[in-house]
Design a protein that fits this description.
Layout: H1 2-17, H2 23-39, H3 44-47, H4 50-67, H5 75-89, H6 94-97, E1 102-106, E2 112-115, E3 121-124, E4 129-133, E5 141-147, E6 149-153, E7 162-166, E8 169-173, E9 177-182, E10 186-193, E11 196-200, E12 203-207, E13 211-216, E14 219-224, E15 238-244, H7 245-256, E16 259-261, E17 271-276, H8 282-293, E18 297-300, E19 303-306
Parallel strand pairs: 5-7, 16-19
Antiparallel strand pairs: 1-4, 2-3, 3-6, 4-5, 6-9, 7-8, 8-11, 9-10, 10-13, 11-12, 13-14, 15-17, 18-19
Helix pairs in contact: 1-5, 2-5, 4-5
InterPro entries: FecR, FecR_C, Ferrdict_sens_TM
Protein name: FecR family protein
Keywords: Membrane, Transmembrane, Transmembrane helix
């Protein structure tokens, strides 16, 4: 309904500026503009001085009308009323006055967590970056995962959907928990609780617990999730019992934001049981793996190598 009003008003104002309106359309537009102008409230603390704003708009329109040799005496009211009306509905001018203050949250070598203004909690993996507003405004709660991986525990609010942009993906939820894992070649969304909608480039999938959305090579697909990802292992002790080294490495890559390099891929099939404490440093976990497997993993910045 609001969009229809907005588009109709834009259409009539544009048509009037080109002297294409009928007498009935012009009367409708003039009556509406005058009524809105007389009845509208202006919040000077967020929108500025009403007289100055109206004058600037009016002077600009008047200048253009003079160039075209035409002038409508109601344009002053139309300009001011349009600003007031559309600002009240949240269109055009209001965002310029009431932008959300954006903050950044980054991690280095260790995972960390942050609580947002709505009560949602974000567990950010090591070597990751996240952007969020100081306080949520408007109809949607929008944040951006700029780099790396995160686990989201979103506070329920049906009236204000939570939307996460991660690369070319948009993940839309109301209240749920899930992982988002980004790399240069792909992005994954893994649902632990609740329902999630993931979209990209005209593609869309709906997910429930134990399901994963994979965006790779410009294609969005849905598949069953690895059971190891169905917990918040950023903030939970995890035991990987009788699994493979490949599986352990996958978890470590996401939790600590590192990549592994090895010459012999056969080592990935090595069986082992590993306990990963929620606040353990990567070096401590690697010492445990080295002891079990007799391998020698060493950290070089964001790269882990087998020497």
């Amino acid at each position: 309904m609001i969009k229809r009003i907005k588009h109709s008003l834009e259409y009539l104002i544009d048509k009037s500026s080109r002297n294409k309106t009928s007498e009935a359309e012009e009367n409708l537009l003039n009556n509406f503009a005058l009524s809105e102008y007389q009845n509208s409230n202006w919040d000077e603390s967020s929108m500025g001085n009403s007289v100055e704003v109206s004058k600037n708009i009016y002077d600009g329109i008047q200048l253009r009308m003079v160039k075209k040799k035409t002038f409508n005496p109601y344009l002053k009211y139309m300009a001011a009323a349009s600003i007031l009306f559309l600002a009240g509905l949240g269109f055009f001018f209001k965002p310029d006055f009431a932008k959300e203050k954006q903050l950044s949250f980054k991690t280095s070598s260790d995972p960390k967590s942050i609580k947002l203004s709505d009560g949602s909690k974000i567990y950010l993996a090591a070597n990751s970056s996240f952007q969020y507003p100081e306080k949520f405004e408007g109809d949607e709660r929008k944040v951006v995962l700029l780099k790396g991986n995160a686990f989201f525990e979103i506070a329920k609010d049906k009236k204000h959907p939570f939307i996460i942009t991660s690369g070319e993906l948009k993940t839309r939820v109301v209240g749920t928990s899930f992982h988002i894992q980004m790399s240069k070649s792909k992005c994954e969304v893994i649902v632990v609780t609740g329902k999630v909608n993931v979209t990209s480039k005209g593609q869309s999938v709906d997910l429930v617990p134990n399901e994963e959305a994979l965006f790779e090579s410009q294609k969005l697909t849905k598949q069953m999730a690895d059971k190891s990802f169905l917990v918040n292992w950023y903030n939970t002790d995890v035991t990987l019992d009788q699994t493979t080294l490949k599986h352990v490495i996958t978890i470590l890559q996401y939790k600590y934001g590192v990549s592994f390099q090895y010459d012999n891929e056969q080592v990935l099939a090595t069986p082992l049981t590993v306990f990963i404490k929620k606040d353990a440093a990567l070096e401590n976990v690697l010492e445990q793996i080295n002891y079990i497997t007799n391998l020698k993993f060493k950290v070089y910045g964001e790269i882990v190598k087998v020497d």
